[in-house]
Design brief:
This protein is an alpha+beta fold and about 375 residues long. It has three domains: about 110 residues, Helix Hairpins, CATH 1.10.287; about 150 residues, Immunoglobulin-like, CATH 2.60.40.420; about 100 residues, Cytochrome Bc1 Complex, Chain D, domain 2 (Orthogonal Bundle), CATH 1.10.760.10. It has eleven helices and ten strands. The strands form two sheets. A five-stranded mixed sheet has the order 3-2-1-5-8. Strands 4-10-9-6-7 form a five-stranded mixed sheet, with helices on one face. The longest helix has about 35 residues. The chain is elongated, with a radius of gyration of 29 Å. The relative contact order is 0.09.
Length: about 375
């Protein structure tokens, strides 16, 4: 080969390598390896395919650049006259088929293993709502809602005056994270109470749709303690972008202590459900409940977002008969975005929110709704 041609081929190979690698990585960071067996298997499969693509890219770009450089018209080269090459066509058909078959085996094994939810050591039911998650620990009779934290919720409001960069984990923080033990096979039962959502934490290596009237299954075993964040991955409504997921993986000892603490809080809540609350107690608790569960639609000042979300300040519902107001909150209202909260919030939370909205923003009805009244209606 002439020295000039050799130099051109070397440059073409270098250009092919650069073009192929740049094409693989220019679109963004590579995917994370994750903290579960699935996420590592998915990562390994991804990397194998990635490097196969890089090799193919190097070969293709090198051949293209060599052809351009060595067979250009300015060198006096005349184009060859042929219609096709049977050998080339067979090769570029067989080789991709072999690659696909070779990758199908480990990929299929991983997919099958993802569906093996048997022998789980614990079960957690996940229910998606607009726009929050409800977690039920089936063995321990613990249940709570997880919503966007107050800092992110305040910063996302128009003209809030809060810079998102000043909020830690903006739009990726919640008030109540999902706490799980490490080294434990956990089965998730996923459904939804209104529209389709999708529960996705990248570090776990999978995501599942949560569909009303249907239950999907998934499982995980987290190997490393830590905090892992995700989001709803399905367009579920106007606040789809404000529905984060936070999973806290802790040691088994810390998890046992957390479970004990939650059970004690549940016992206190049961006692609180039966006692009489004062107006001040309900207003204080109701302000917190309203901020996390109601302000997203009706706004913090109760002015709403018309026409979809009516104002509560001075509204006929919030200042009218208490029974009608309770019915709307418990059962929702057909034909509107207002859904019932009877299966989402505790009797204390609902009673406090009702009392707060009937006595805030100038409503001043003086009405006090007791948790025992709500418990009677929801349980009866």
């Amino acid at each position: 080969m002439k020295r000039e041609n050799y130099f051109i081929v070397v440059l073409a190979v270098m250009a092919g390598v650069i073009a192929a690698v740049w094409g693989m990585f220019a679109i963004g960071d590579n995917m994370p390896r994750g903290v579960t067996e699935f996420s590592r298997q998915v990562y390994d499969l991804h990397m194998v395919i990635l490097w196969i693509c890089v090799v193919i890219g190097v070969l293709v770009f090198t051949a293209m650049f060599v052809s351009i450089a060595l067979h250009r018209k300015s060198r006096g080269v005349e184009a060859a006259q042929f219609s096709h090459s049977t050998k080339a066509e067979v090769l570029w058909t067989i080789i991709p088929i072999l690659i696909l078959v070779a990758m199908a085996v480990p990929a299929t094994k991983t997919l099958i293993k993802m569906e093996e939810t048997g022998d789980a050591e614990m079960n957690i039911k996940i229910t998606g709502y607009q726009w929050r998650w409800k977690y039920d620990y089936l063995e321990d009779d613990i249940s709570f809602l997880s919503s966007l934290d107050a800092g992110s919720d305040a910063a996302r409001q128009l003209q809030s005056g809060i810079e998102p960069v000043d909020v830690d984990n903006y739009l990726l923080e919640v008030d109540n994270p999902l706490v799980v033990p490490v080294g434990t096979k956990i089965r998730f039962l996923l459904t939804a109470g209104d529209v389709i959502h999708s529960w996705w934490v990248p570090a776990l290596g999978w995501k599942r749709d949560t569909i009303p009237g249907s239950v999907n299954e998934a499982w995980t075993r987290i190997d490393e303690p830590g905090t892992y964040r995700g989001q709803c991955a399905e367009l579920c409504g106007k606040d789809h972008g404000f529905m984060p997921i936070v999973v806290e993986a802790v040691s088994k000892e810390d998890y046992a202590a957390w479970i004990n603490e939650q059970q004690q809080l549940a016992a206190v809540a049961k006692t609180d459900e039966e006692r009489l609350w004062t107006l001040n107690e309900l207003m204080s608790h109701g302000e917190n409940v309203y901020a996390t569960q109601c302000a997203t639609c009706h706004q913090g000042d109760g002015q709403g977002l018309t026409p979809a979300f009516p104002a509560l300040a001075g509204s006929q519902v919030a200042t009218g008969p208490v029974a009608d107001h309770i019915k709307v909150v418990l059962q929702g209202r057909n034909g509107t975005a207002m859904r019932g909260f009877s299966d989402m919030l505790s009797a204390q939370d609902i009673a406090a929110a009702l009392t707060y909205t009937r006595n805030a923003w100038g409503n001043q009805t003086g009405d006090v709704v007791q948790p025992s009244t709500i418990a009677q209606l929801t349980n009866g």
